[in-house]
Amino acid sequence: MKLISGSSNKPLAESIAKKLGIEMLDVEISKFENGEKKVAISGNLHGENVCLVQSFSNPVDENIIEFLLLADALKRMGVRHINLVLPWMGYSLQDKVFASGSPISAKVVADLISNSDVKRIFLLDLHNTSIPGFFSKPAHHDSAIDLFVNFAKLNFKQENTIVVSPDFGGLKRARVFADKLNLDLVNIDKHRDYKTGKVTPMGVTGDVTGKICIIYDDVINTGGTVVEVAKYLKEKGASEVHFLITHALFAGNAIQLMENENIDSVVITNSINHDSLPNKIKVLDCASIFENNLRKWL
To answer: What is the pTM assigned to this prediction?
Structure first.
């Protein structure tokens, strides 16, 4: 197997290639004067299995088009199979019709991928676990939960730590995480104003006084929920508040918000690449998750 990477997350692609002990080929990606993408893949790939790594992160639409161009180029080079590693699936939060006249955007993106020459897709911590069913090609959905469990065991004292679900929607995910660590779980009841997007915690189902609180979730978007939850838990007596989040979109001024005094740390994976981050934000390499799945197809 050979590996190629789009421009969205080369560091993760390099880590996957290194763990698998396979060659990462050069890809030339540029733009024409009119703004259209131009891609060119080096090497002879006829009859090869290829792993293509691309996160559909910001700029989302551009990275999706780039993936489609790379997949078509690989097909025309005569590759046998294309295995797509999609660490973050852009549009996956738009997984249902939210209002009359709206699309199911996650299904639209899944159809684009399925209609390409990709053989199978490897996904990580989707917000809705039914999304793999949107694909007409085999889609393998994995989780970074064990990565975070191991981190928590090494960095937090179990006797003084509690797991917090930031909302009812994340309760099932947080419960699995708490059970793996043998920790108690509490849930925050929150209200979201859908006109402004502002989140207001309304209550917590348990006592967090003097506790180290771990909030385990799948995605940080604008950071508004993170800031409000951290502030609320500190007001309720929590000694520390730490966030363990798979996907860090960090939209808008989210990175600046992470410097909030009520947030003790934010731990993320490298499913989305960020060139520079504050010291308060720690990054875990999720390459081993994809390595374990891809080895079956070497």
So the answer is: 0.92
Residues 6 or more apart whose Cβ sits within 8 Å of residue 88: 55, 56, 57, 124, 247, 249, 271, 272
CA distances from 167 to 110, 161, 228, 269 (A): 27, 19, 12, 21
User: Do 122 and 86 form a contact (C-beta atoms < 8 A)?
Assistant: yes
- Region for 279 from its dihedrals, namely left if φ exceeds 0, alpha if ψ lies in -120 to 50, beta otherwise: alpha
Which residues, in sequence order, are bridge partners of residue 49? 81
Q: In CATH, what number does 2-143+288-297 get?
A: 3.40.50.2020
Which tokens go with 4? 């190629």
Neighbours of 143 (CB within 10 A): 19
Residues forming CATH 3.40.50.2020 domain(s) in the chain: 2-143+288-297, 145-270
pLDDT tens readout for residues 108-125: 999 999 999 999 999 999
Radius of gyration over alpha carbons of the chain, in Å?
20
* Residues known to be catalytic: 190
For 36, the token pair is 């259209």
All residues at 6 or more sequence positions from 7 whose CB lies less than 8 Å from its CB, including other chains = 29, 63, 66
Fold entry, domain 145-270 = Rossmann fold (3.40.50)
pLDDT tens readout for residues 130-152 = 999 999 999 999 999 999 999 99
